[in-house]
Amino acid sequence: MKKAGRKIRRRLQQWDVGPVRLGGYRGWRLRRKPLRSNKDPEASSMVNVATIASWRADAAIPLLVDVIEQEGYRGSSLDTRKRPYPLSEEKAYRLALAFSLIKHTDSVQQGQRIVRAARGMEPEEAYLWYSYLVRAGQNGKGGRLAQALALLGEVVW
Length: 157
What we know:
alpha+beta; 18% strand
């Protein structure tokens, strides 16, 4: 008698991006809902992934407009929107990478180059670089890797 193999199904995470006010500056917050676990009932709340404000938020507008329009919303609704936009996982990882890298730069031009690079990345590439960045952050070297990626983006992209 043959046993049926166990089918592994990958559940997608829920992501959203929405406007936020930080210290009088307008910005954007990217959040995700972690995968539910029966052991942790608190896991159903949204976790903040990245927040940017001031000129960094302005530098990310072209990428935000692209992502919002690809999700089926109007890009012109960014100014008036109060609620967050739900995002697909592949678009959210691209935004998470760009937000994380922009947070570690001090130059407006470099921030714009990072956004241009993120707009041109394939979804798998954005996920790969974001996972490297998160892993380095867990080891205490996230800032160094982000600065290196930002400088690499300036040279390569």
